[in-house]
Amino acid sequence: MDSAIYATAYQLGFEYPEYFSRLFKKNTGMSPRDYINAQSKI
């Protein structure tokens, strides 16, 4: 997992970044890494 994703998860109050990633994917339909990649192509 990317250090930016870890940092974001901790800043949002998640103790476990893996849990943040799971919730992010459940709500957006893509992983945080896929989301970052998609946004960088815009």
How do you describe this structure in short?
With 42 residues, the chain is mainly α.
Low-confidence stretches: none
Number of DSSP E strands: 0
- Determine the N-to-C terminus distance: 22 Å
Overall outline = globular
Number of helices: 3
- Structural class estimated from helices and strands: mainly alpha
Give the rounded overall mean pLDDT.
94
- How big is the Rg? 10 Å
Task: Produce the secondary structure layout.
Elements: H1 3-11, H2 17-28, H3 32-40
Could you explain how this protein is built, in words?
There is one protein chain. The chain has about 40 residues and is mostly helical. The protein has one domain. Helix content is about 70%, strand content about 0%. It is built from 3 helices and no strands. It has helices at about 5-10, 15-30, 30-40. The longest helix is centred in the middle third of the chain and has 12 residues, at about 15-30. The mean pLDDT is about 95.
Question: What are its keywords?
Answer:
42 residues, mainly alpha, 3 helices
